[in-house]
Amino acid sequence: MPKREVVRLHASSGTTGKSTVVGYTRKDLELWSDMVARFLLMAGVTQDSVLKWRSGMACLPAASACITAPSAWAPWSFPPPAATHAARPVDQRFRTTHIVCTPSYAMHICEVAAEMGVDLMKQTAFRTACLGGEPWSEQMRQRMFNLYGISGYDNYA
Q1: Residue 63 pLDDT grade (very low, low, confident, very high; cuts 50, 70, 90)
Q2: pTM
Q3: For the chain, which domains are there?
Q4: Are 22 and 10 in contact (CB under 8 A)?
């Protein structure tokens, strides 16, 4: 593709030694935006939802497209990854309903809430996790639902 058509570059974190760099055209970003919007709608996100994006911008290529996506769905939040404890009051105040993150981080949030004495089912609006970026099992999905009332959806974006 000619360089003049590239409107955004996305690079992986380079954990294997060298970043993978992908160039996006305007059409690519439109397609990503449509795909992400469809996925979020299928996961139950509406204009009344509050969505927190806790995956690093380099973890999922869709993150890049989401920034430019039309706000036809929920507000977005991009807090620092180390702020799990500090984010709890903000999540409760703004009634976060959905999160996009890795499966292990979703479990971490559930465990931190339990340690803090927060009953996710009774004290928060958090009900849905859109999970990707690493493998997870059906047992993990069931544990998240049975112990914390969180439904997990696979996010392959």
Answers
A1: low
A2: 0.71
A3: 3-154 (3.40.50.12780)
A4: yes
